[in-house]
Design brief:
One of its GO terms (molecular function) is nucleoside diphosphate kinase activity. By secondary structure, the protein is an alpha+beta fold. It has one domain: Alpha-Beta Plaits (2-Layer Sandwich). It is 35% helix and 16% strand. The chain contains 8 helices and 4 strands. A 4-stranded antiparallel sheet has the order 2-3-1-4, sandwiched between helices.
Amino acid sequence: MGSGSPAPRQPAAQCPAAASLPMASNQERTFIAIKPDGVQRGLIGEIIKRFELKGFKLVGLKILHASEDLLKQHYSDLKDRPFFPGLVSYMSSGPVVAMVWEGCNVIKTGRVMLGETNPADSKPGTIRGDYCIQVGRNIIHGSDSLDSASTEISLWFTPEELCNYSKCHDTWI
């Protein structure tokens, strides 16, 4: 190519050595939301980094000001609790980063990564253990079961907003 133009790009290789390895079972999806205090404190990148380094795959991502209607649906199981109005007000007070993560046992592992709902009970090394001090500002939400993950994902994302793709390293994780 003497014209000085770059060589045409070749398609990425498909990891032939990994293709013959069995894939981990228990692939599932979970809903994770960075709450307004996590967004305001600039923790979006750190939280995404932790999930990526763990080996989970991000398949849905958006930042939005959640409506009160959406939040009332999302937290409908808490509607009779005295803190419900304050929770909805807090969650609608600023932008939220909504995400869907995919991987082997991502729901259970994600909950461990988040730490306890009350940051005072969270171990160092967890997201809440490292970045939170009070339960009313615990920066992150994560689905607690397959049923809640399915419900929450469908509340926050349309099927068209979720990406299905493979990563070369998936078979190695």
